[in-house]
């Protein structure tokens, strides 16, 4: 087994375990190691203490060689023969944690090591300060001593440093544990040989700063250290000429590095890219950031992450190789860095490509409810975290669940406070480091061989995750059987958390253990069952236990064990019922396939008692046939009509496929009534047998398949000897009469099998067909028309598939049925059409058969006729078919177009026949689509519209003519018919005038033709569809194609007394006032007519302005017209901005019209008009001032006899509307002010942003800009002029990036005057201009000073404003664009403000509130002032709270001191 396979079989991939893979005891053996299981003898001898060692006069000098005989030690390389806690657990009782013995983690105190720690303290060796483990244990003390123990806790060496270097603050073993580095608080580092106890190197780095961290890498000649100065150093151990030296290389500095961890790459993952390229990965952390760097091929940072947390917390780091699923077939092992601070933990994956490139990806983050002090990987699924309250938390990574929490206060963890206070001193007593140093315990927790060692002040404790069988056994001993069973299930399923060791060879042990658990749980459940109580309570009690037992048996696949459990529960009726119900659910879900006959019998009896017979059949079908009592179940199935079960038993048990058919058919023949379920079962089973498929699933076994098919055909062709004609073929006759269609479908599917392609198969097919026809002849009266139809369809389709021999009479019967017009066959029309079409396609029926055509016409088989006519080339007849088929009628125009213009094989004669047919069916085409019909007739066929209308008028009603003209008008509106083409057509055709009053006027003018079409359309629409006419008047562009069309429309509407349409025509003509007056007048006449004739009278056309119609005038029509009038008035105000006076007059006129009926108290419609009046008043609010509405209402005599209740809701509604409008106005004003202020502020920030010069020289004097003396900046032109002749020492940098000395710029007189209008008054602004940009834009511009033409030529993009100011460089270009967009947005705000304030002023004006009016006018004035915004100079003043101070902007060159430009970090 190679190393990678070794890792794949292990659940835990850690650095420590990778180092120990070469040890004699393998990891999987450690997982399953149990002292009691392997009968390890008890270790009797006592561990030697430090006193014993000292009593032997042992020399502690570093150069002294220890005596092996005195210590009794073997100085060979230590092997990991046992865990640290195993020997201790054998000799005495271990110190357990506060958690119960069922906890996941067990804690063991290393008594031998702890005794020596106490003894060393008594001998003035100091307290323990650091611990490190590999194959041995090393403990450093506060006085600098180093104690080395083997895995048996025997003290190997007690080492004293060669000089007083302070306490040991850091320890680190190399990979093979042959060397150990000890870092001291005074900066000294000692390297010890663990085999001899000699010091090999003693060195320090420059200062005596405490060593915070020291780490060996996977290269034994290199190590890393971090001291209190915050520097990270790489130590390179060399031995030139036998002299041991150490070279220091600084890797990282400049920040307080408080934690580091190199990635140890084991040789066991030799094929990993990290091992091939070895980039030397280091993870380190400061208080603020976590960083991963690589040293090869060059020093580079590959990842950084900002750490957040309380200042009293330190960051921690831990590496681990974990198994990742690359795809479905392969996994990979990649290192994951676990780091965190305070309450946050982050998992970062280090990815390495095949080329050696490294990258880091954050996998997930965890948020804790406590502040951590250290964290360590237990395995690749579990981590251990210690917190500031000295608790140890075991956390599952995937579920983020805290599995267990242990109290560590009794351990008295050692903290390296003094060393980290040294780090705080080096960084000026940084408070965060001082506070965090109290919880520094980097070298108090260490992990090796899946054992966590924690160093206390007087002891060392080992924390180990219990193996799964230890946890199960402990639960069993405590009689917690259910908990033990649940844990066993989790282990078996692989979902157990914090599990150590794979199931592997221990699976049989787990199954055997689970059997005993199940037995114990069942026995305990029966023994502890309540003796009193209701049956429901007892069922609930057993429902907590029995389903768990059965599901466990299903999970472990120990089905036979259910018999033993059933024997325990059988005596209790309730327990037996619950057990059988649970078994049934498992059987039906396919989790159990085998049960004992006893259980099956009781299960069937239970369903019989509960009257759930169908469940019995489901159970039988799910069980293995070997577990079923055939005789018992067959009798039961026949008694309860379980037909599926009968088929299953005969097929599987007896291997007989014909017997179910015979017995089920005989059973069907003996039963009367509805037997559809049985018939369906027989037909499905028959189909399966004919096609070789098993009735339940799969296929019939090959040796039995052919026999099953033969037996099926014999069953169908069975004929009794000497039978009467009525008794022939009893089986087929029974099935054919029971379900004709499905029986024939079964035969059709069977005929598709390969057997029927042979000669013998064709003979059998012919025999079956003959049998069916014989049955029809002999029993014709027993078949219904639908059944006969199904038979004929079947015969027709079989006739198409193969050459069958049918008598001519039979074939004639088939055709007659297929084209039958019987009402009972109407539902099969589509199917019969399809069959006839297939017969025509396959040549069974002749296309030229005239008799068949007549039958198809009689049966209305237009789709079949369409196919026939297409094959004949009779396209004009196809047109009739299209017209008769509603589902295909929309395709008729595409068909006509393709025949006339696209198909090349169509002759001219065929086209003429088609056009003739079109002329005869114009009305049908128009009913299908008027617009497409008009396009076909007028545009494509170029028929005169007068001819079409005359033909339609003579043959059809006016409705058809109207539909045709509506299509023509639609084409005109969509520009499908042009006036020019009409003029050409009329001149070519020579149209004559018609004497008919409906005929169109003939003229050589196309516009007059359009006018005539529109006139005739409107006349018909006024009579037939007034709604269509209204839509046409309001929207159609065809009304404006002729100059006289609107006048004609008015005359037509007036002639038919459609006053509201006249109003819409006035709107189209632009006469808005006349439109309102006409509509109000029309409503007035309408109401008067309604009141005069009441609801029983019609509108008259004899002098009162109304046309006689067939429909009575109702109040709903009057109400609808009033609402239309109100809608028109609102549109006039909103769209056309009609003056307020005319709007008010129109509203009040309409109001007077509606009030008139209210005054007639005797009228029965007074109340109805009163409600209409209130609705109208509500519509007026927002368009007419509220006081005017109230004045109008109360001045009317209609309210003299009324009460306040009549107008209360109106008055309150108006006041609520007023309050709403006022609030809306206030909020709108505030929002606009806020938007304007925000945009001005953005403009100010952009305008005042600093500009960087693009050249280091002045564009006028060519001298360097930095050579002048720094002085205060000048900010206006006058000061520039006053400084002329003096060296002001200031610079002027334009936004284009060109820089000048202020003195040079003032002498060149490079300014201009800009006149703008502010608040209606002209204002002059003087500003500087860039000489270079101005000269480029205006070649005639000459400055008084020469300008360096080369300055600024390197600019890649230039932008010039309208005023000549240059804005060079790509960066300033984007700034200019932002300024322009801000200006445009500001102008949009001002436009919206004008619109909003105009309407708000009108509303407030009507309230007679002078203060509000003045405020509104002031605000409007402010917005108008804002509208005069100028880019070069802008001044805005507002009295609102948002703009409480005057804001002035002026785009001028930025004048900045020399020093601020060149000394800035930007």
Description:
Residues 1-100, 986-1004, 1095-1110, 1267-1288, 1342-1379 and 1397-1466 have low confidence and may be disordered. This protein is of the alpha+beta class and 1466 residues long. The longest helix has 44 residues, at 1204-1247. Helix 41 (979-989) crosses helix 42 (1006-1024) and helix 42 runs antiparallel to helix 43. It has a 4-stranded antiparallel beta sheet with strand order 1-28-27-26. It has a 4-stranded antiparallel beta sheet with strand order 2-3-4-5, covered by helices on one side.
Question: Main traits of this protein?
Answer:
single chain, 1466 residues, alpha+beta, 4-stranded antiparallel β-sheet, 37 strands, flat, disordered C terminus
Write the layout of secondary structure elements.
Elements: H1 3-8, H2 15-19, H3 27-31, H4 35-38, H5 50-55, H6 68-71, H7 86-91, E1 105-109, H8 111-122, E2 128-133, E3 137-141, E4 146-149, E5 155-159, E6 168-173, E7 179-184, E8 188-193, E9 199-204, E10 211-216, E11 222-227, E12 232-238, E13 245-252, E14 259-262, H9 273-277, E15 281-285, E16 289-294, E17 300-306, E18 316-325, E19 331-341, E20 344-352, E21 358-367, E22 372-379, E23 382-387, E24 391-396, E25 401-407, H10 417-426, H11 431-436, E26 445-448, E27 451-455, E28 460-465, H12 468-477, H13 481-493, H14 507-527, H15 535-543, H16 546-556, H17 561-569, H18 573-588, H19 597-609, H20 613-622, H21 630-639, H22 643-654, H23 659-670, H24 676-691, H25 702-716, H26 730-738, H27 740-751, H28 759-778, H29 785-801, H30 808-818, H31 829-841, H32 850-858, H33 862-872, H34 875-884, H35 892-902, H36 908-920, H37 922-928, H38 930-940, H39 945-955, H40 958-973, H41 979-989, H42 1006-1024, H43 1026-1035, H44 1045-1055, H45 1059-1069, H46 1072-1093, H47 1115-1136, H48 1140-1159, H49 1166-1180, H50 1186-1195, H51 1204-1247, H52 1277-1282, ...
Antiparallel strand pairs: 1-28, 2-3, 3-4, 4-5, 6-7, 7-8, 8-9, 10-11, 11-12, 12-13, 14-15, 15-16, 16-17, 18-19, 19-20, 20-21, 22-23, 23-24, 24-25, 26-27, 27-28, 29-30, 29-37, 31-32, 33-34, 35-36
Helix pairs in contact: 12-13, 13-14, 14-16, 14-17, 15-18, 16-18, 18-19, 20-22, 21-22, 23-24, 24-25, 24-27, 26-27, 27-29, 29-30, 29-31, 31-33, 33-34, 34-35, 34-36, 37-38, 38-40, 40-42, 41-42, 42-43, 42-44, 43-45, 44-45, 45-46, 46-47, 46-48, 47-48, 47-49, 48-49, 51-55, 55-56
